[in-house]
Amino acid sequence: MTNWDELAHQAAQTIAERTGVSRHDTAVVLGSGWGGAADAFEVTADIAYPDLPGFTASAVVGHSGSLRSCRVGDKNVLFFAGRTHYYEGRGVEAVVHGVRTAAAAGCQAIVLTNGCGGLNPEWAPGTPVIIDDHINLTGRTPLVGANFVDMTQTYSRRLRDIALSVDPDLDGGVYAQFPGPQYETPAEVRMAGILGADLVGMSTVLEAIAARAAGLEILGLSLVTNAAAGMTGEALHHAEVLQAGQDAGARLATMLSQILERM
User: Fold this and answer.
1) Closest Cα partner for 133 from 170, 98, 177?
2) What is the C-alpha R_g of the chain?
3) Which residue in 83, 116, 161, 176 has the fewest CB atoms around it within 10 Å?
4) 221: nearest Cα among 151, 168, 159
5) Which CATH architecture fits 4-262?
6) For residue 102, how many C-alpha atoms fall within 13 Å in the half-sphere facing its CB?
């Protein structure tokens, strides 16, 4: 049986050796549409995922599959350019391995980003939204045993306020994670809306649970890359997800940089 805790510590040790930084301050997981945001920062080291214990090459188009160590102001920040998704079949432990590696590397806070479908018709593709809360529709958890983690304040009020100080026009919403890899049906989207979701996607929630359990302060940011299924009657394509990220790239990079400098 794979010892994922040991792999996280081994990965953290490799990061320290390859970057020359004994302890990082913050981690950022770059989801679909956010990949270009890391290009705005001074990269001190770039490590391919296969060179890190427990990591594998990215399986999703648009995710580069590497770890970057960057200087952002006076902070050392780890950028995870791509993530393992639950639908890849590697198990929940692999999905949250990046989060646990960040914690082992010394990070106190993490920014979880994603590309998602939006239920609010006012959110055009390319609109960033703060995650206020989430709904776990995967039926899974990274926690095992009597590990009763409080999820009342999963997404830090302090970090959300920082994001709003950078961009007062940012809206907030509830993100629902489906297991994927198929896009949600219109009926599933309507169900999610009835449950209270404003955003739907295939990532982030399981990572947030693991981050909360590890004691990390969490900021969640979604990029609305398309209207959720059934909202417009149009078919969904991964290409539009990538295009929305490219179109919003400059805004996302500037916003993320300013948020990280104030964290």
Assistant:
1) 177
2) 17
3) 161
4) 159
5) 3-Layer(aba) Sandwich (3.40)
6) 35
The 3-state DSSP class for residue 74 equals coil
Cis ω before 179 (30° cut-off from 0): no
For the chain, give every domain's residue range. 4-262
CA dist 244 and 224 (Å) reads 8
Q: Which pLDDT tens digit goes with each residue over 93-152?
A: 999 999 999 999 999 999 999 999 999 999 988 899 999 999 999 999 999 999 999 999
CA-to-CA separations, 254 to 38, 238, 261, in angstroms, rounded:
10, 24, 11
Peptide bond between residue 181 and the one before it cis (omega within 30 degrees of 0): yes
* pLDDT tens digits for range 180-232: 999 999 999 999 999 999 999 999 999 999 999 999 999 999 999 887 765 66
Residue with tokens 């427990």: 54
Distance of alpha carbon 69 from alpha carbon 41, whole angstroms: 9
**HEC readout, 134-181:** EEECCCCCCCCCCCCCCCCCCCCHHHHHHHHHHCCCCEEEEEEECCCC
On the question of pLDDT at 258 being above 80, the answer is yes
Q: Beta-carbon neighbour count of residue 17 at 10 Å?
A: 12
Q: Is the pTM of this model over 0.70?
A: yes
Please give the positions annotated as active site. 184
Q: For residue 57, what are the CA distances in angstroms to 51, 66, 86?
A: 9, 8, 15
